[in-house]
Specification:
Chain lengths: 436, 306
């Protein structure tokens, strides 16, 4: 048995894992941000009044680390705002009024993919970015100078966040597409070791993909303990390969590329059909959602449309999240749009959203024992409050991936993860000041 | 619709709370209370009640006086009260219990900033204070169930002086001998230990290493190792006092070394000191070293580069 990194046993709450996604009725309006990825925002190529179709380019990538954005509906460009007051999205947001017909762009055809360069170009054109939540442009991740450097290609199907089952449903319902993606990676990148890491609380996904692997042994399905944060990049790499991604290095330096299963399936869909990334499978759950479901929604759909489709929200809704409860981001308004990397929207009622009262640290060490990366949140907190950036540096607060385990474990209900985020920012500021 | 709450992640928390942990410690201490009532009689309950109540009142009063939030709801003062009582002989005058509680809660805990801030274990330090201040009443041990509350020596006193007859190993295990309230019945303390382990309140490292070191060193000095671990306050100290979160290290290896250090000091005091018992002094000395143990055993960041 290989040594595995510690973590926490968060509740699974996978209420929707048996629910195949339902297709959302076409929304009246979509709000499509030009920045749904890490890197430069896409540059708008349409003007107000333009008639657009599904899959049509709205924004082209602006620079090397960027991604194109496509229309998720057919209709008319209603406005292009610098700041969208409705959704509170910063940056350019294109609002399209749908004609309800969802007419695909006629010129969409599957791209010719014969070489590794073709493959990377196709990934870039697909508009696919890291769909597990990070939003890093996938083409950039796959652009490797020396392909021999990649010893392990890891497909991340861990899905360790509570509630979320959209990756699970992708692995089951889009298994064929996902396997196409694995074939493409094998063929064009020439990687020999392809591993699919799935937590053992998804037996059906493991079974379905194991059947594919049995018929066509180009990838190996590995069942992992259901322990948060199994799907964290560094954690998954270590638990599957024993490799350690060192401070300041990329997974590639440890011979690994990790890509989310839904991301790979979206790449395969584009190469198979020519349809870029315009819709997302989203888990809709939480104590304030009347009928939890998986939903396939056009990118840009206001969350309110999706909640309405799921029986509406209860009256005591108090918090709405993009993503899961461990690392998800609380949104300001229910009219926020579905983005490329939105894998779940969680609505919590007043009881679940109540902020716990913080009490004094009792130095129990649960934050230290539960940190997957061997950090000492209680100690880092002391040094942060003392303004000791030298000690923050020594105790490596910069390695913190903000997984939330320390706050989760804390019996005194201290917001340790928040303090770690602040401490990281403080350390960055002090280092920047030093380098000036 | 109501305004939405916007707060940083995580948006879900575990079930453990400070008061829940303290409640578990209190539950783990129940077997020893039952054993003590059987061994020493119902005055046990009076001693426990006075210690718990005065600890809680001192905590509440000090926090009122200094205009801070009251923390008696977290039950930590109650735990201190029970542990202090367990370190006292059944014949202790009750007013001395109140003085001990004052030292534990006000001097050791609150003056250093309250829960989480004190560097020394309040119950242990108060016991040492009482031992020095009220030496006479603190070393009057009665023979269990003797009709006239005949005073007698504890097993450790017998071992040190060589006068008198040691109880059998079974009597030592069941606690049928002289001593302070909570220390005599090994069976009850081990039951409490099992409960704390199952509830994951504490790890095995400190108690097991502490006891193992005492066992091995006593044998090395030619003593009877089984008697050594069943006598005196070793099990009470190892299971309930050396594992106090606030005053012991936060890392696994820190706790490991803490237990080992307590074991070495206990045997040295028992072998060479003029006091028959060394558990409380050992734990107090290791409390002082705790910040250094935390630093020496700091967790190694995953993938960290020097």
């Amino acid at each position: 048995m290989m040594k595995r990194l510690p973590g926490i046993h968060a509740p699974h709450l996978k209420n929707t894992d048996a629910k195949t996604a339902e297709i959302l009725p076409v929304p009246k309006l979509v709000h499509i941000p030009m920045s749904m990825h890490i890197g430069a925002p896409a540059r708008s190529v349409v003007t107000v009044g333009d008639i657009v179709k599904v899959g049509q380019l709205l924004g082209e990538p602006d620079g090397a680390v960027s991604s194109p954005v496509h229309s998720s509906v057919s209709g008319t460009v209603k406005s292009i705002d610098a700041i969208d007051a409705v959704t509170n999205e910063r940056g350019t947001v294109i609002i399209i009024e749908s004609d309800g017909l969802q007419t695909p762009l006629e010129t969409l055809t599957p791209p010719d993919v014969n070489t590794a360069e073709d493959f990377i170009a196709a990934v870039r054109d697909s508009g696919v970015v890291g769909l597990g939540g990070a939003g890093f442009p996938t083409a950039v991740k796959l652009t490797v100078k020396d392909i021999a450097q990649v010893e392990y290609f890891i497909v991340n199907g861990a899905e360790c966040e509570p509630y979320i089952t959209s990756d699970t449903r992708t692995m089951i319902d889009d298994a064929e597409l996902l396997w196409d993606g694995i074939r493409l990676v094998k063929k064009h990148l020439g990687v020999t070791n392809i591993l699919i890491g799935i937590e053992n609380n998804k037996p059906e996904a493991i079974r379905v993909l194991s059947d594919y692997a049995a018929k066509e042994p180009i990838a190996k399905v590995v069942s992992l303990p259901a322990m948060y944060p199994q799907g964290g990049e560094k954690v998954l790499i270590y638990n599957l390969t024993g490799r350690i991604v060192e401070e300041g290095k990329l997974p590639l330096d440890a011979g690994c590329i990790v890509i989310n299963c839904t991301t790979l399936a979206a790449v395969a869909r584009y190469i198979k059909t020519g349809m870029p990334l315009v819709e997302k499978r989203v888990t809709v759950d939480g104590s304030a959602v009347r009928t939890p479901k998986n939903v396939i929604a056009p990118i840009g759909t206001p969350l309110s449309d999706i909640f309405d489709f799921c029986g509406g929200l209860t009256d005591d809704v108090r918090k709405i999240l993009y993503g899961g409860p461990m690392m998800g981001v609380a949104v300001l308004s229910v009219s926020a749009p579905v983005k490329k990397s939105t894998n779940a929207i969680i609505a919590l009622n007043a009881k679940d959203a109540a902020l716990p009262r913080e009490t004094e640290c009792i130095r129990c060490g649960r934050c230290i024992g539960g940190c997957p990366l061997g950090l000492m949140p209680a100690v880092l907190r002391d040094y942060f409050l003392l303004g000791r950036t030298d000690m923050l540096e020594k105790y490596k607060v910069n390695l913190c991936m903000e997984c939330g385990c320390c706050s989760f474990n804390c019996p005194a209900k201290r917001s340790l993860t928040q303090t770690m985020k602040l401490a990281k920012a403080r350390l960055r500021e002090s280092q920047a000041a030093k380098n000036k | 619709m109501n305004l939405l709450t916007v707060s940083p992640s995580p948006h879900i928390r575990g079930n453990e709370t400070t008061s829940g942990i303290m409640r578990d410690v209190l539950i783990a201490l129940i077997p020893a209370a039952v054993a003590s009532v059987i061994i020493f009689g119902f005055r046990t309950l009076a001693v426990i009640a006075v210690c718990v109540c005065s600890c809680a009142i001192f905590e509440w009063a000090f926090e009122k006086l200094t205009k801070r939030d009251t923390t008696i709801g977290d039950l930590s003062a109650a735990v201190t009260g029970v542990l202090l009582a367990y370190n006292l002989p059944v014949t202790i005058p009750l007013w001395q219990c109140v003085v001990g509680s004052f030292v534990a809660i006000v001097v050791i805990k609150q003056l250093f900033g309250g829960i989480g801030k004190n560097f020394a274990n309040p119950a242990i330090t108060a016991r040492i204070f009482m031992f020095l201040a009220f030496t006479g009443t603190m070393s009057r041990y009665i023979i269990p169930r003797s009709p006239d509350a005949v005073t007698g020596a504890t097993p450790l006193m017998i071992m040190q002086s060589g006068v008198g007859e040691l109880p059998s190993a079974l009597d030592l295990f069941l606690g049928n001998h002289g001593g302070v309230l909570g220390e005599t019945c090994a069976l009850a303390l081990i039951l409490g230990f099992a409960y704390l382990l199952i509830r994951r309140v504490i790890g095995w490292e400190t108690p097991v290493i502490y006891v193992a070191v005492v066992f091995a060193l006593t044998a090395a000095f030619g003593g009877n190792p089984v008697n050594a671990i069943l006598s005196g306050g070793l099990l009470l100290g190892a299971i309930f006092m050396a594992t106090d979160y606030v005053t012991a290290p936060m890392t696994f290896w820190g706790r490991f070394v803490f237990g080992a250090g307590c074991g070495v000091l206990t045997v040295i005091i028992r072998q060479f000191g003029s006091y028959p018992e060394g558990v409380s002094f050992s734990i107090l000395i290791m409390n002082i070293l705790t910040p250094y143990l935390n630093r020496l055993t700091a967790a190694k960041p995953f993938g960290g580069v020097k």
